[in-house]
Design a protein that fits this description.
By secondary structure, the chain is an alpha/beta fold. 33% of the residues lie in helices and 23% in strands. This is Ornithine cyclodeaminase.
Length: 356
């Protein structure tokens, strides 16, 4: 990432929610997911070059607020994100987020952007990248349990990257399924509405669970999962929040992003701390095997990791160039002499007096 010129250091490209929507539509939703997926895969293949730490979480009875930082030594990035399942009943988003990229050499930010929409895109992209390595060959049918904010992005990602042609929908709230069914009607996917968890997963090659309740739930029981299926478990993402019965985990080959975080937040928090798992980046680089047989049950226990957000931020930083879909935000002090911050404050006297 080239360093910004000195005369523009105080101006940081800012992508608002409105501009993010316009940018993604101008690119195409599926195309944007595919582009983010390519960046994620490239960054996972250089996994060892990144600083890595479990996200920094502040928990309350209402939800969680988290910071997710990482750096490859040249570029630093972080995401602020919350998770408040009760918000939906109050007409608010369960998840909101924003993120930042900075130049490590100067420490100056080079991008500030909304990440509520971008997180949905990167989560879908990560799921589909994992499925490239773990799902059955020629998988065509995906079951989607939990039809909330992530649902359509997941379906489109698996269509674009993995080639599914059918998505089966179930949610305990029929209004959520109404929404998903309507939004996917012109997607090119066959959309099948189902009336139960069991009906939804029946005949599916890939099962995605994406529910929001902050509790140890049993969305899938052991008898629902059959030989050869791939499970994309993305709803469990904090301590005390899971979706799968423990017996499913014991039958599955489990793949994770970053074990120190997943063992705290993922489905595997139900298992012994030394239960064997494989890291996805090692599968991508050929150091570990992914799917090895038709009958194998594979499970991607995804909680979301900072490198995925870094990849999404890098993608946005690149694609906004030459577009009208960002604003230059005056957010950094730029004194004429670096040590004269007080003098810079005094520069505003004339404009302040004129305004009066």
């Amino acid at each position: 990432m080239p360093a910004p010129q000195k005369d523009t250091l105080n101006l940081v490209p800012f992508v608002s929610v409105d501009n993010m929507m316009k940018l993604i539509l101008s690119i195409g939703v599926e195309e944007a997911i595919e582009g983010i997926a390519a960046q994620i895969e490239a960054d996972f293949k250089r996994w060892e070059s990144f600083d890595k730490t479990p996200r920094i979480a502040s928990h309350s009875k209402e939800g969680v607020i988290e910071l997710m930082p990482t750096s490859d030594g040249e570029v630093y990035g972080f995401k602020y994100v919350n998770g408040h399942p009760k918000n939906t009943k109050e007409g608010l988003q369960t998840v909101t987020a924003f993120g930042l990229l900075a130049d490590v050499y100067t420490g100056y930010p080079v991008l500030l952007t909304e990440m509520t929409i971008l997180t949905a895109l990167r989560t879908a992209a990560t799921s589909a990248v994992a499925a490239k390595y773990l799902a059955p060959k020629n998988a065509k049918v995906m079951a989607m349990i939990g039809n909330g904010a992530q649902c359509e992005f997941q379906a489109l990602a698996f269509k674009r990257i993995c080639g599914i042609d059918t998505v089966r929908l179930f949610d305990i709230d029929p209004i959520a399924t109404d929404k998903a069914e309507f939004n996917l009607k012109d997607s090119g996917l066959k959309v099948v509405r189902t009336s139960s968890h069991q009906e939804c997963v029946s005949g599916a090659d890939i099962i995605t669970t994406c529910t929001a309740d902050k509790q140890c739930a049993t969305i899938l029981t052991d008898n629902m999962v059959g030989s050869g299926q791939h499970i994309n478990a993305i709803g469990g993402d904090c301590p005390g929040k899971t979706e799968l019965h423990g017996d499913i985990l014991r039958r599955s080959d489990i793949f994770v992003e970053y074990p120190p975080q997943t063992r705290i937040e993922g489905e595997i928090q139900q298992l012994d701390p030394d239960h064997p798992v494989k890291e996805l980046w090692k599968v991508m680089t050929g150091q570990e095997e992914g799917r090895t047989s038709e009958g194998q049950i594979t499970l991607f226990d995804s909680v979301g990791f900072a490198i995925e957000d870094f990849s999404a931020l890098r993608y946005i930083h690149d694609v906004i160039k030459g577009t009208p879909f960002y604003d230059d935000l005056d957010m950094l002090a730029d004194p004429d002499e670096p040590r004269d911050l007080y003098g810079m404050v005094r520069r505003a006297e004339k404009s302040l007096a004129a305004a009066e």
